[in-house]
Amino acid sequence: MNAFGADHDPHAGISDKDFQRLSDFIYTQCGIMMPPSKKTMLTARIQKRLRQVGLHSFKEYIDWVLDPEHSGEELIQFIDIVTTNKTDFFREPGHFEYLAQNVLPELIKTSGAGVRRELMIWSAGCSTGEEPYTLAMVLKEFAQHYPGINFRARILATDISSRVLRSASDAVYDMDKVGPVPLTLKRKYLLKSKDPTKKLVRIAPEIRAMVNFRRLNFMDADFGLREKMDVIFCRNVIIYFDRPTQERLINKFCRYLSPGGYLFVGHSETLNNLKVPVVQAAPTIYRLPG
């Protein structure tokens, strides 16, 4: 028997009881469903964290995270572990074309967004920053096509994971990660590393300046946003939630959406059969009437 006893064998894995405790906790804290099929993935991620913090068993770690008096900063670390962060520049490119060709001209015409006042866009679930920086490039290009209108826009980018927000704020990416960015935009908005052995690029300051990053949990009762949004991108996020949570979340988004504002969801997502106040404007694109 090892020095920690049978219960403290780090190779024993997460017990079904502890996995259920974690699953219930993740659902309550983040709204994310963690079915038994995710147990192997969760085990591997926590095992890595065990080594980092010097604990010897899954149970010891789980007890720590679930203890509201003692988890503290580790709770944020744990949420980083369980949230999936898959994103790309210009992912689902049809959305950005629709934004530039349909949404922006419409919002300028109906509410003066971007001209009489700043246009506000929210990238909700921004991960490591590819989506908000793509939006900033699209907005910058749009403004340059209409130099006479002094187009102004700001992007709020939020995520539950502190780790990905730090990465997003750094705005440094591997060269292969920026592959989907059109060549003309690469030349304008990406800065190559001065060290040629490092295949890294950084987003140009004028693009970075358009984006504000902050941590936000979709399960919070109040998102604490001061301004209404003209456009919300929340793509490939609600697939992790059950239908009641999806409905609550979309209704919350709508409270922060300006009348006539747009909501973009992922191509694998739908708001069909949800009691929400938006109407479909195009596939996976919705609009708040008004």
UniProtKB/TrEMBL annotation:
Pfam families: CheR, CheR_N. One of its GO terms (biological process) is methylation. This is Chemotaxis protein methyltransferase. The keyword Protein biosynthesis does not apply. The gene is cheR_1. Methylation of the membrane-bound methyl-accepting chemotaxis proteins (MCP) to form gamma-glutamyl methyl ester residues in MCP. SUPFAM superfamilies: Chemotaxis receptor methyltransferase CheR, N-terminal domain, S-adenosyl-L-methionine-dependent methyltransferases. The lineage of its organism: Bacteria, Pseudomonadati, Pseudomonadota, Magnetococcia, Magnetococcales. Keywords: Methyltransferase, S-adenosyl-L-methionine, Transferase. CDD domains: AdoMet_MTases (cd02440). GO terms for molecular function: protein-glutamate O-methyltransferase activity. It catalyses: L-glutamyl-[protein] + S-adenosyl-L-methionine = [protein]-L-glutamate 5-O-methyl ester + S-adenosyl-L-homocysteine. It comes from the Bacteria. The keyword S-adenosyl-L-methionine applies. Residues 14-290 form the CheR-type methyltransferase domain. Its EC number is 2.1.1.80.
